[in-house]
Amino acid sequence: MTRSHLLGAALLLTLASAANATSFVVTTDAVVGSVAATTDATSDVSSSFRDDKIVRAARDDAASFVASQGDIRGVKLESAFAHIRQQAPTLQASDVQLAQAILAL
Fold it and tell me: What keywords appear on the UniProt entry (predicted)?
């Protein structure tokens, strides 16, 4: 191989590794961001509703909801969702985040 071919190959390898590193950083940032949002919602709900009877009664329904990836929605869980959203109207959490928070109690 000539010197120019070796230089070209080295340049291509450098560019490819930079692209992979950038892709890894973006993916990592997205995963960390979603985990942080879930953790924030979980801690907000779990600290303020730890002794709430309606929320605690929904633990089994929450477990079914999480295990079924949202397909099973029990009556007690729906009641707990409504109760939580009424008590904390500024809370921006999805149903999955709330169910995980209920399980964390």
Answer: Signal
Exposed, middle or buried by CB within 10 Å (0-12, 13-18, 19+), for 13?
Answer: exposed
Global pTM exceeds 0.70: no
Instruction: Give residue limits of the domains in the chain.
Output: 3-104
pLDDT in tens, the chain (105 residues): 566 666 666 656 665 655 555 555 555 555 555 555 555 555 555 556 778 899 999 999 999 999 999 999 999 999 999 999 998 888 888 999 999 989 888
* Contact criterion met (CB below 8 Å) for 70 and 95: yes
Radius of gyration from C-alpha coordinates of the chain? 23
